[in-house]
Amino acid sequence: MIRKALETDIADIHALCEELEECVFPPETFSRICRGILANNDHVVLVYEDEGTACGFLHMRMEYQMHHCARIAEILELDVRAERRSEGIGKELFLAACEQAKREGCVQIELVSNRRRTDAHRFYETKGMVRTHYGFTMPL
Hints:
Layout: E1 2-4, H1 10-21, H2 27-38, E2 43-50, E3 53-65, E4 70-80, H3 89-103, E5 108-111, H4 118-126
Parallel strand pairs: 4-5
Antiparallel strand pairs: 1-2, 2-3, 3-4
């Protein structure tokens, strides 16, 4: 079942984010950040719940952007537990996000994905997404 995330999902989302990024995040800091995102009306966090556990999640930000002159949705994170991949959970989360973005008046959905995530790139392309941008980062 897909639903909006609750504060009770933070531990599961934390574990999924650590799996996605292959690192460890301090629980207190992660929880504080996640609670802030859950309270922000410009963000939507969806979870795929199965047997009381969030085994997949999607975080999307929706905002007006000057260079589009419209409201745009951006998927910031999407992950499904490794042992649950290829079951259609990611597809369901993606489609639910697209529907939510349409309801919220967004005219486009976009995302940035790390170059090393080639499986994710194939997934997004099968959903109709097109590679159009280069992404740049710099540590501060």
